Amino acid sequence: METRGKVLILGATGGIGGETARQLIREKWEVRALKRGSHGSELNGEIQWIAGDALDKEQVASAAKDCSVIVHAVNPPGYRNWQHLVLPMLRNTINAAERNGSLIVLPGTVYNYGPDAFPLLREDAQQRPVTRKGAIRVQMEKELEAYSQRGGRVLVVRAGDFFGPHAGNSWFSQGLIKPGTLPKVISNPGTAETGHQWAYLPDIAKTITALLARREELEPFARFHMQGHWDPDGSQMVRAIQRITAYYGVVAKIHSFPWWFMYLAAPFNATLRELLEMRYLWRQSVRLDNTKLVTFLGAEPHTPLDEAVRMTLQGLGCLTAQSGSPQ
To answer: Domain NAD-dependent epimerase/dehydratase spans what residues (predicted)?
Structure first.
């Protein structure tokens, strides 16, 4: 069977990596994925899983052999230990890409930017982060840009807070609702009249795939911003969840997110400390400008909000037979 090429995905068991793998398979790419804890190489579904660790330089290089694209979607679990793990993993990807002449795809975040760049972020906005994770993300992109200046090719696709049926750890699943049950209470981390950017993972994967289909037209260090789902007043996402739960016979209540509890518990929980560091993104409106993306592709892949929320709740186990039938 003729394919569009071979791609290695680092982080294929995560939200963005897994969604991108599924979309690339639909578009006839040959997909490999690195997986810790496995032995040898095995075909599971349509993904070739290869035993290895993103922290092992030679294992990454071996897995990337003959791959024209490497998707770097791997992150330390639970937001922890970024300062010791993130850059070494990226450098292993860059090393593998240099050996194989691969294009590197990085799913970007808004962490790179500080309030001086808000509220509307274009690709050329100054990156002056105010958090440790933001500084690391900036360094990641600097090292990728340096790779492009040595003859490599890089694609950064930046989007807002992830949500989707396979999102894993996310604000949607950890902050707004409780997975596994039909929500009766929805927490809103934002403040009134403060806009927030959301990104539906299948739409991100479709965007990455569409850009890769035209990769020969991209500049060596290409960056694109997605608009995703823009929540102009900080209430649209929680109200969409509320509409879906009402459809299943439950009128969920919307409460303010208990930031006070996070401050109390943070000294004892590394993940909460990391999440608190990003609170500034809920206190000020932050919007990504997708003009460049739309100009290049013609349109941005976009799933209607209620459909995206329904699929996300279903994927998180919130809409099951036990939830009752739609009313």
So the answer is: 7-217
CA 158/CA 156 separation, integer angstroms: 6
CA atoms within 13 A on the CB side of 136: 18
CATH number at residue 41: 3.40.50.720
Under 8 Å between Cβ of 86 and 141: no
The total of structural domains in the chain comes to 1
Q: How far is CA 36 from CA 33, 112, 280, in A?
A: 10, 29, 34
Confidence (pLDDT) at 18: 94
The answer to whether position 206 is within a domain reads: yes
Sheet bearing 47-51, strands edge to edge:
41-44, 47-51, 30-35, 6-10, 69-72, 103-108, 153-158, 221-225
Q: Is 0.90 topped by the overall pTM? A: yes
Pairing of strands 229-231, 196-200: antiparallel
Query: How does the average pLDDT of the chain come out, rounded?
Result: 91
How is 150-185 classified by DSSP, letter by letter? TT-EEEEEE-SEEESTT--SSHIIIII--TTS--SE
87 Cβ contact partners less than 8 Å away, ≥ 6 residues apart: 136, 139, 140, 143
Residue 44 located in a structural domain: yes
Question: Which amino acid, one-letter code, is at 68?
Answer: S
Place of tokens 């979607």: 73
H or E element in which residue 105 lies: strand 103-108
Residue 182 lies in a domain: no
161 within some domain = yes
- Predicted confidence at residue 261, as pLDDT, reads 86
Percent of the chain with pLDDT over 90: 76
Confidence tier at 263 by pLDDT (50, 70, 90): confident
How far apart are the C-alpha atoms of 205 and 183, rounded to whole Å? 27
How distant is the alpha carbon of residue 118 from its chain centre? 20
